User: Fold these one by one.
Assistant:
Number 1:
Amino acid sequence: MTAQPVPEVPAGTVQVRRDGPVAWLVLDRTDRRNALSPAMWAALPGLLEELDADPDVRVIGLRGAGGVFSAGADISEVFECLGEPGTGLPRGGLLTEAETALAAVHKPTVAALEGYCMGGAWMLAGACDLRIATASLRIGLTPARIGIVFPASGVEALVRLVGPGTASYLLLTGDTVSAADAQRWGMLTRVVAEEDFDRVLTEVVTGLAQRSQLSTQAHKHLVRLSAGAVPGTLGTDGTSEALFRQVLDGPDARIGQQAFLARRPPRFRWSGEEFWAARSGAARPGKEHRAPIVRGRWPRRAARS
């Protein structure tokens, strides 16, 4: 009998879909429940940076194709995903790079969670500002079931969000939990019935897009700093002071004040791209970003042992 060639498995894609001022990053690998390949993980930081610098984008959303968020990192390529540049240790690698890039986005971010959110996919959901889920969502942090260690950055973020006790339960047992439990523990912002999911999601992202970007981005910055701030010092760093200065010098506060007094919806103008570029010395919008697909490959011999 002649051996048949093994067909190549598609690596999947991360699509960008625009809906007015909302940009959706869609994890699209439905044949594997949107498990992320190394190429998909590596694509996320550049895409996020470009959307964050796009003045036409006011909200960035993340969701999976086909009614499932994601099964996490593709287990068949998990060592390539986790390998750390330089040491090769499976400390987080591409997963940590994507999580860090998402957490650093200045604009409001929303994770739309359906079906399953497993393993490393939770790092992406947890890095978003808001997490809207269907009541049937199942979440599982499952490294203990396959003998690997969850990325250190993901553990740190999880503990900040739910506390050490709940984080220990999730990581040590590897249990898959319900949306109701996840919401009770602080992992989810809102849980809605299946039939209401798209409507509620649209309402949330549309509302965010209509808010003052100065307000939302300044609040993101302050919330991000608050975990490590000495009491009484929050808001005194240089970036916070510059954002507070924008309340006086920028257009949004006056637009909001006038609209409130006139009893009409405000049309805010502050967008933030120039502000953050000036603060960071970033390149002008439109610059292309290319991330290597795999960094710090896990040694093949170690992967088989």
Number 2:
Amino acid sequence: MLSADRVARLGVGDTIRPVRIVHELDGVRADTAPKQVLAAGHHLWQRWRAHPAYRPHDLLLGLDAGGIIPTLAVAWASESRYRIAWKVNLDLPEKLVFHEPHARRLEVFAYGRFTGQRILIVDDEITTGLTLINLVTALRDAGAEITGVLCLVEDTVGGGRELLEQYEVPLCVLTTL
């Protein structure tokens, strides 16, 4: 459905994850056609709609930077509103802060009110699931309900799916490594 590979990161220290997941929508190895992005969004949305844990959402929340493209693709496919959590600390009210372990910049910020919202999280890949659990915890503490997590790629070496299951968060992916 979607090709992806593990690629070694060069010049990173001990605190940075040494592997990056590269997939055909990220534009790293080759040009990406808009129709590929739209098709992936439709496939991921259809897969989520058929998932046994499917529940409606009010808002998509994507993660900077890898989650931007899949979030837009799913937003177009589902005709959903979206927000992006950014690694930029802005002087805005109602700021939610969570951490992305094993990244150069650890803090990630989601802006706006989440109380009472049903949130469907979208990212490009899941490995350990730690970033997603940090986000889930912050959103729940802010009064949001998490309906699920959609990812283009699941890297099974990190146990992310199992971690999400412990927090009762369903995961839906297009490709598994």
Number 3:
Amino acid sequence: MTQIHRRLLHTGLQNYDHADFEVDSPFFSQALRAHRCPCCALGLQVFEHELETKPLKPGYSQVRWLHLEICPACGWWNFRQDHESSLFERPEEVSRSTWWELAHALQSEIKLGSTTLPVEMIKKHLLRRWEDRTLISAQQAEDLVASLLQEHHGGQVIRTTANANSPDGGIDLYLAYGNDGAVRRAVQVKRRIARDTEPVGEVRNFVGAMVLTGSDCGIFVTTASRFSAVAQSVPGIAKEAKFKLQLELVDGERLFEMLQATSSTMTAQFPPGVDPNQEWRGRNGRTILARELFNGDIRDWA
């Protein structure tokens, strides 16, 4: 029986103010005061974005800084807008204060390997924890690859079997092109749980399946990080052989690049004033785009 692994996933945000902060659950309030994640109890990383502003007039205030504390493990975050203000009497003195409205991430528990988990949720989670690709089911891996290939190459996905565990003759699905779908690319998906390098054997088996089914174009996808050197030589050999096969190899690193490239099309909810292309600066001086900060993997940004 497949083990179900539980993970937290950002599914929205909730606004609150200082009054809510005082009366909210003690654990939540205490965690924020200690700058720790209320979900994981880990220390929060701090990022800030400075907005473009006009010269401040005496007696006025304006939002100038967006401030974020975020958990590098689960992605929970707490957000605030900071104002700068000046007094009529002493306009040269500028103070910084927090706006009354704050926001924090809403986290929902997902069960990796569950048959009811939508592929979009899998994609959002793997953007933050790509190593969890070893925890998804074979069917989820096939669904993930089908979605990414369709977005990357276009065409229509045609499955050869009802599910990933059924015999497929060495081809999991096709990418079909044209009004009649006559032009097709054969696709084979290999989910790897422990293996980090894809050996040549399965690639050669796929080439044989292409020959038997009359497919002259194919894509072999593995969740392993890389292909062996011998496996990498197969597309060149297949192209020069009798059947002149066009074979594309997609390893785990390339698959993750495709996932990152399609992440901009995913539905994302940002706090007020946040634009996906904003540059945010961490305490260590490094910058990161907002879309990566709120939806990507930030564990190496400590």
